Amino acid sequence: MLRGRIKFIIAIAVIVVTLSYLVYGGVKEAKVYYLTVGELKERVPSVYTDKVRVSGTVVPGSIKKDLDGGLEFKITDGERTLDVHYKGIIPDIFKDEVEAVVEGVYTPENVFQANVLLAKCPTKYESLDGLEKGENI
Amino acid sequence: MVETGVISIFLSFIISVYILIASLAGGKTGRRELIKSAENGAVAVFFLLTLACISLIHALLTRDFSLKYVALNSSRDLSTIYTITALWAGQAGSLLLWSWILSVYMALVVVLNRGRNRGLMPFVLGVLAAVSCFFTYLVGFVESPFEKLPFVPADGNGLNPILQNPYMAIHPVTLYIGYVGVTVPFAFALGALISGRLGDEWIRSSRTWTVFCWTFLSLGLLLGARWAYLELGWGGYWAWDPVENAAFMPWLVATAFLHSVMIQEKKGMLKKWNLALVILTFFLAIFGTFITRSGIISSVHSFAQSDIGPYFLAFIGVILLFSFGMFILRLDDLKSDDHFDSILSRESAFLFNNLIFLGAAFSVFLGTIFPILTEAIKGEKILVGPPYFNRVNVPMGLILILLMGVGPLISWRKASKQNLMRNFLYPTIFGLLTGIVLFILGIREIVALVSFGLCAFVSATVFTEFFRGVRVRSSRGENYLIALYRLISRNRRRYGGDIVHLGVVLIVIGITASSAFVTQKEATLKRGETLSIGKYTMRFDELRRYSTQAKDGTAATLTVFNREKEIGSMVPEKNVYKYEGNREINQETEVALRSTFKDDLYVILTGVDDTGAANFRVLINPMVSWIWAGGVVLLLGAIVTMWPARVERRAEAGARYSVGVSKDTVVKA
């Protein structure tokens, strides 16, 4: 009886330890700092070695696309701006003034090399700004 | 109609409050007329909320832009079908749908239990009514879909084009049926706790309802994956996005419960555990609604955000405090009737299955709330991406597949050597052989080899089981097909479960192949130029621009060759939706997909320039169709399990089953 119970305890302990190890290793491997443009710039130079996700508004007129899918644009937090280089799939809703989220590394050349580009459906989507006024009641 | 909607929601809130009070009071005092009137109230709430939904659909269809919800989620040029589905495109509408589905469940529970679970029912209904109070309050007083605008816009904002997809029309409803459905097992569990009737009643009802909503959760997840695959245009179907995780977590815990409940039914063990799982499932469903709807965790999926967050937090707090408070009060009544004998037994296979499902759910939970945690503790937001989730969940998933093969065949109490040899020798050999053959064929990815080997092992155990059953029956002179049919219909739960497992195996094969062996290529082509990927070659033939009432489309036609043979043409598109108003989201990429059981050819038109050249991204995703096929098999298995058997048949199946069990025990002794 006791031996049987010990076996269970060992088995459960193995599961728990394995899980913790996987979680710990996974976090270490996959952690990404979520910063604003300003926070990113304040963390130079230690930020160069981290994986970072930055969000900001796309500066109007800054988007340069070449046909091969290469993309350059700037995002801003209202005060500072960040140059972003990206190559890959461009989300449908990506354009001037949307909130873009980029993930990648910030290089010492002061360019953000992104390998992920997400565009958040503008929160405006649920706001009334887009509605044209018809006749007032 | 708008007034009708407003009044209906208001009344359904009032009646929900009444049901809550009347049924709990009726349950305590045993006064029949109180219980009766509470039950009638449940039916009334269902009719009222149905009326509210109809009113909102009416407002949408008649383009009543004086309503904020209609103005924000539809427009004059929107087709009828998507105008109706706009009912759940936004926040307030989704919450109304939540409340309505809950009212359907509430009415169903009342109708189906008129002659059953009488002692338990008032408390079950009380819990359902409490949840209904919360949601009808939200829809009625916080986020009303019938809120008026101060002016009437000429046209609405329109529906986001990526929501205009047949899968988006059914995926949310399917998922919601599952999501909301976990309220019912929760209500039975909590009802049992409140009333102190912790016998078999609640567990039997909880199990049946969990099978039902688990099926819908599974289908909802798969349909969502398929929608993402077809519509989001990045080539994958699952990204560990918070919104996906929100639906995945309750699924994981519900799956754990569906397995551990068998231990309680057969052996009277794990009573506390099962209660905890049901409460946890409900908590995760509400938590999921909370994180997707409150915008507390940023996600690309969360279209609608608002300030309903605090209400949800308070609600979650009340649920957890109350449920676990009751739980602790009743601890003495939840003693186990039996204990674990051997680590090599079905009980322990199920126990480990449960621990791993729960571990997986915990790791997904941790990963999802990681940014909130780190912000609270360290003051900086740190996310964990897909590598985290894969690293934790892939090994867990592999062990679960192994257990999926072991659990159904290993004997109860203590497996003997004969039992192990008899049931697992051939499947193990088959699994190992599969791995070796695939290795010789050139597959070197360890995870894929292990996964395919385990899938082969599980399939072999399932086939052994069917084969044995059919052979016994056909030796009595039954035709094979009839033997198979009778075998399944005599023990639907067991064989239905086996079919569900086969569906899961197909899904796992699809996921393994499509995540381990993707090839992709990107190229800019002028007219007449070709691109080769794998065995496929595609020639860019023409770029066509067209206009319809709703959009300006750009369509690229590619002729596809499999080696030398022409196999057809593919037409990826890039569309710009026309708007009369000033709508924000107007671009949509329409991928072209050629799907076979071997692989999917997935073509995205990423860009077009003025000279007529176009940029394409092409992916070969192997065996993705297996995932969808697995979903169909899973649904079939679930239907077999749930199919109502006639009472005497069910009794017979039970008797046979227990004979089968005791035979094993005899062999062992």
What does this entry look like structurally?
The complex is a heterodimer of chains A (137) and B (669). Chain A contains two helices and seven strands; from the N terminus they run αβαββββββ. Chain A has helices spanning 2-30, 37-42; strands spanning 31-36, 52-58, 64-65, 70-76, 81-87, 99-106, 111-120. Chain A has a five-stranded mixed barrel. In chain A, a hairpin with a 4-residue loop joins strand 6 and strand 7. Chain B is an alpha+beta fold. Chain B has four domains: 1-163, no CATH class; 165-407, no CATH class; 425-490; 519-625, no CATH class. Chain B contains 20 helices and eleven strands. In chain B, strand 4 (536-547) and strand 5 (551-562) form a beta hairpin. In chain B, helix 9 (200-232) packs antiparallel against helix 19 and helix 11 (271-294) runs antiparallel to helix 12 (309-329). Chains A and B meet through helix 1, strand 1 and strand 7 of A and helix 3, helix 13, strand 1, helix 14 and strand 8 of B.
Average pLDDT across residues of chain B? 87
| Number of β-strand runs of chain A | 7
Oligomeric state as shown: heterodimer
Order of helices and strands of chain A: HEHEEEEEE
Shape category of chain A: elongated
Strand content of chain B: 5-15%
Give the domain tally of chain A.
2
Content of β-strand of chain A: 25-35%
Q: Are there runs of chain A of 5+ residues with pLDDT below 50, and where?
A: 123-127, 132-137
Number of domains of chain B: 4
Strand order of the largest sheet of chain A: 2-4-5-7-6
Helix percent band of chain B:
55-70%
- How far is the N terminus from the C terminus of chain B? 72 Å
Helical content of chain A (DSSP H or I, runs of 4+): 25-40%
Give the helix tally of chain A.
2
Provide a count of the helices of chain B.
20
